[in-house]
Fold these 2 entries.
Entry 1:
Amino acid sequence: MIEVKVPELAESITEGTIVEWLKKEGEFVNKGESIAELETDKVNVEINSEYT
């Protein structure tokens, strides 16, 4: 299991919600691939894999 880190966003953003997982559990992921969509009160961003 690998820890997924949320990218650093603006200082005023303190929490967010995963609104969609773009990969299924156990699915192979390449480095840099989008794995989830994060929604905050100010922005929606995709979280990318840091690992292969």
Entry 2:
Amino acid sequence: MIKTFIDSGVLIAAARGNSEKSLPAVQVLDDANRSFVSSPFLKLEVLPKAIYNQCRE
């Protein structure tokens, strides 16, 4: 397993799904050979944008 630190930019790019950065982001997230690591601060980075855009999922 490859340990991979997930950045908020990767999650946001994958969630948008409409930019040139989306496909590589989704490919990294779908890689079965990776084990993902993050910090508690990731939630603090991603939630304000989701709340602003009224995303509930």
